[in-house]
Amino acid sequence: MKIALGADHAGYQLKECIKEFLAEKGHEILDCGTDSDISVDYPEYGFNVGKAVIENKADSGIVVCGTGIGISIAANKVKGIRAALCTDSYMAKMARQHNNANILALGARVIGQGVALDIVETFLTTSFSGWKHARRVDMISDFEQRS
Ligand SMILES: O=C[C@H](O)[C@H](O)[C@H](O)COP(=O)(O)O
Q: What number does CATH give the domain 2-146?
Protein backbone atom coordinates (compact mmCIF):
# COMPACT_ATOMS: atom_id res chain seq x y z
CA MET A 1 0.00 0.00 0.00
CA LYS A 2 0.99 3.62 -0.43
CA ILE A 3 0.51 5.56 2.81
CA ALA A 4 0.56 9.35 3.17
CA LEU A 5 2.06 10.47 6.49
CA GLY A 6 1.83 13.89 8.07
CA ALA A 7 2.59 15.38 11.47
CA ASP A 8 3.30 18.63 13.25
CA HIS A 9 6.33 19.13 15.53
CA ALA A 10 4.63 17.24 18.37
CA GLY A 11 4.01 14.25 16.13
CA TYR A 12 7.26 14.35 14.20
CA GLN A 13 9.13 11.66 16.20
CA LEU A 14 6.20 9.26 16.08
CA LYS A 15 5.74 9.90 12.36
CA GLU A 16 9.38 8.93 11.76
CA CYS A 17 8.91 5.79 13.81
CA ILE A 18 5.74 4.87 11.85
CA LYS A 19 7.59 5.55 8.61
CA GLU A 20 10.30 3.05 9.54
CA PHE A 21 7.70 0.50 10.68
CA LEU A 22 5.76 0.78 7.40
CA ALA A 23 8.88 0.68 5.23
CA GLU A 24 9.95 -2.55 6.96
CA LYS A 25 6.59 -4.03 6.02
CA GLY A 26 7.09 -3.07 2.38
CA HIS A 27 4.68 -0.14 2.21
CA GLU A 28 5.42 2.87 0.07
CA ILE A 29 5.47 6.18 1.97
CA LEU A 30 4.40 9.63 0.86
CA ASP A 31 5.85 11.92 3.52
CA CYS A 32 3.80 15.13 3.68
CA GLY A 33 5.98 16.65 6.45
CA THR A 34 6.87 18.14 8.80
CA ASP A 35 10.54 17.23 8.67
CA SER A 36 11.77 18.29 12.12
CA ASP A 37 10.52 19.00 15.63
CA ILE A 38 10.65 22.76 15.09
CA SER A 39 7.26 24.25 15.91
CA VAL A 40 4.81 24.34 12.98
CA ASP A 41 1.03 24.59 12.55
CA TYR A 42 -0.76 21.24 12.37
CA PRO A 43 -3.61 22.22 9.94
CA GLU A 44 -1.25 22.34 6.95
CA TYR A 45 -0.20 18.71 7.48
CA GLY A 46 -3.77 17.52 8.02
CA PHE A 47 -4.84 19.21 4.77
CA ASN A 48 -1.83 17.80 2.88
CA VAL A 49 -2.50 14.21 3.88
CA GLY A 50 -6.25 14.63 3.25
CA LYS A 51 -5.61 15.96 -0.23
CA ALA A 52 -3.10 13.20 -1.02
CA VAL A 53 -5.69 10.54 -0.15
CA ILE A 54 -8.55 12.22 -2.03
CA GLU A 55 -6.36 12.79 -5.10
CA ASN A 56 -5.41 9.07 -5.02
CA LYS A 57 -1.75 9.82 -4.43
CA ALA A 58 -2.02 7.42 -1.48
CA ASP A 59 -4.31 4.54 -0.55
CA SER A 60 -4.59 5.63 3.05
CA GLY A 61 -3.25 8.30 5.40
CA ILE A 62 -1.88 8.68 8.91
CA VAL A 63 -1.70 12.03 10.70
CA VAL A 64 -0.06 12.76 14.05
CA CYS A 65 -0.07 15.78 16.35
CA GLY A 66 0.16 16.14 20.12
CA THR A 67 -3.33 14.88 20.85
CA GLY A 68 -4.38 13.86 17.34
CA ILE A 69 -7.36 16.19 17.73
CA GLY A 70 -6.31 19.27 15.78
CA ILE A 71 -4.81 17.41 12.86
CA SER A 72 -7.84 15.11 12.57
CA ILE A 73 -10.18 18.12 12.55
CA ALA A 74 -8.05 19.65 9.78
CA ALA A 75 -7.93 16.44 7.70
CA ASN A 76 -11.70 16.07 8.04
CA LYS A 77 -12.18 19.43 6.31
CA VAL A 78 -11.02 17.85 3.05
CA LYS A 79 -14.14 16.62 1.24
CA GLY A 80 -14.37 12.83 1.29
CA ILE A 81 -12.01 12.37 4.20
CA ARG A 82 -13.05 10.32 7.20
CA ALA A 83 -10.21 10.75 9.66
CA ALA A 84 -10.53 8.75 12.88
CA LEU A 85 -8.64 9.57 16.06
CA CYS A 86 -7.79 6.27 17.73
CA THR A 87 -6.20 5.55 21.09
CA ASP A 88 -6.31 1.74 20.93
CA SER A 89 -6.57 -1.10 18.42
CA TYR A 90 -10.27 -1.65 19.06
CA MET A 91 -11.00 1.89 17.92
CA ALA A 92 -8.80 1.37 14.86
CA LYS A 93 -10.68 -1.85 14.02
CA MET A 94 -14.06 -0.13 14.35
CA ALA A 95 -12.86 2.94 12.44
CA ARG A 96 -12.23 0.66 9.46
CA GLN A 97 -15.06 -1.88 9.87
CA HIS A 98 -17.87 0.53 10.70
CA ASN A 99 -16.73 3.96 9.51
CA ASN A 100 -14.55 3.11 6.51
CA ALA A 101 -12.05 5.67 7.80
CA ASN A 102 -9.48 6.62 5.18
CA ILE A 103 -7.14 8.44 7.57
CA LEU A 104 -5.90 7.37 10.99
CA ALA A 105 -5.11 10.13 13.49
CA LEU A 106 -2.83 9.58 16.48
CA GLY A 107 -1.84 11.67 19.49
CA ALA A 108 1.89 11.41 20.13
CA ARG A 109 1.52 12.96 23.59
CA VAL A 110 -1.30 10.59 24.50
CA ILE A 111 -0.16 7.09 23.55
CA GLY A 112 3.15 5.25 23.59
CA GLN A 113 5.03 4.07 20.54
CA GLY A 114 4.14 0.39 20.96
CA VAL A 115 0.42 1.12 21.19
CA ALA A 116 0.68 3.49 18.23
CA LEU A 117 2.27 0.82 16.02
CA ASP A 118 -0.37 -1.75 17.05
CA ILE A 119 -3.05 0.76 16.08
CA VAL A 120 -1.37 1.41 12.73
CA GLU A 121 -1.13 -2.32 12.00
CA THR A 122 -4.79 -2.89 12.88
CA PHE A 123 -5.96 0.11 10.87
CA LEU A 124 -4.12 -0.98 7.73
CA THR A 125 -5.17 -4.63 7.88
CA THR A 126 -8.87 -4.24 8.67
CA SER A 127 -11.50 -3.97 5.94
CA PHE A 128 -14.78 -2.09 5.81
CA SER A 129 -17.73 -4.34 6.71
CA GLY A 130 -20.21 -2.64 4.36
CA TRP A 131 -23.90 -3.56 4.84
CA LYS A 132 -25.73 -1.23 7.27
CA HIS A 133 -22.49 0.61 7.89
CA ALA A 134 -22.30 1.58 4.21
CA ARG A 135 -25.72 3.23 4.49
CA ARG A 136 -24.52 5.31 7.42
CA VAL A 137 -21.25 6.31 5.81
CA ASP A 138 -23.21 7.22 2.65
CA MET A 139 -25.43 9.50 4.76
CA ILE A 140 -22.33 11.40 5.85
CA SER A 141 -21.04 11.64 2.27
CA ASP A 142 -24.43 12.82 0.99
CA PHE A 143 -24.62 15.49 3.68
CA GLU A 144 -21.12 16.60 2.82
CA GLN A 145 -21.96 16.86 -0.89
CA ARG A 146 -25.05 18.96 -0.13
CA SER A 147 -23.20 21.33 2.21
O1 LIG B 1 -4.47 19.53 18.45
C2 LIG B 1 -3.36 20.07 18.39
C3 LIG B 1 -2.12 19.35 18.66
O4 LIG B 1 -2.18 18.58 19.81
C5 LIG B 1 -0.83 20.15 18.60
O6 LIG B 1 0.18 19.22 18.43
C7 LIG B 1 -0.57 21.00 19.81
O8 LIG B 1 -1.59 21.96 19.99
C9 LIG B 1 0.80 21.69 19.69
O10 LIG B 1 1.07 22.39 20.87
P11 LIG B 1 2.41 23.20 21.08
O12 LIG B 1 2.52 24.15 19.92
O13 LIG B 1 2.22 23.92 22.39
O14 LIG B 1 3.54 22.23 21.09
A: 3.40.1400.10
